[in-house]
């Protein structure tokens, strides 16, 4: 199964910003473990979670919502 494009975009943005999972979790008010699970693709984010994470990580382009599209 292809990785979730939303999770891949979040993980790439996390790596680009250099933020820790703890820093991201503090910004969005979620447990650190949940942020880890979402960014690594273990858990798929809700729309609200993705939007909060995207804002925290500075994502401005919305990735496709299905695995048929590659995330750049």
UniProtKB/TrEMBL annotation:
Database matches in SMART domains: HTH_XRE
Domain HTH cro/C1-type intervals: 9-64
InterPro entries: Cro/C1-type_HTH, Lambda_DNA-bd_dom_sf
CDD domains for this protein: HTH_XRE (cd00093)
Similarity field: Belongs to the MBF1 family.
Described function: Transcriptional coactivator that stimulates GCN4-dependent transcriptional activity by bridging the DNA-binding region of GCN4 and TBP (SPT15), thereby recruiting TBP to GCN4-bound promoters. Involved in induction of the ribosome quality control (RQC) pathway; a pathway that degrades nascent peptide chains during problematic translation. Required to prevent stalled ribosomes from frameshifting.
UniProt name for this protein: HTH cro/C1-type domain-containing protein
Record organism: Lentinula boryana
